[in-house]
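Database export, one record per block. Field names are fixed; values are copied verbatim from the stored entry.
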Amino acid sequence: MTRLFVTADVHGNLNTWMTLKQLMEPTDCLVIAGDLFDTCYGNYSCIDFQPDFIKEDIENLSQRLYYVYGNCDTPSFTPGYRQNLSFTAFGKKFFLHHGHGKPIVPDDTQIIISGHTHLFSLKKKGSRIFMNPGTITNPRNNRYTYGIIDPFQAKILDLTTGTPLATIDL
């Protein structure tokens, strides 16, 4: 793994899913901060709403996956995942959650990743870094964004230009 490719709020959108797969490098690890499938409210009459295809595609994904349920995901659709998840990458302790509710964050966490708002954010508060990658599915500010974390930096990238919108050294 050379990078964490961070996203959230895909909402079962096939076009978004295929775009993410094209942007990822073979050695990336995919981090999804919830609402991947949107099986609570998704509209099956919309041709681009394809949670079943995405679910099957994830089972064949070559990259490592860290995924947590969002408020629009139905756990029975993809059993085996959780509401939040702690993991280590690049010698850093991460905490992944969707962003709704108030999870208990372990004390040794250094980087917190969440989604839910459809707005990107990258901030350092004290010794912790907080990342919301935004979304490339219906962002609330018309900025289509995703996050990249490598051993040296965390950054938010604009989908259209590839330009970093925010960067923090690790």
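Remark 1: The mean pLDDT is 96.
Remark 2: Residues 114 and 139 are 15 Å apart (CA to CA).
End of record.
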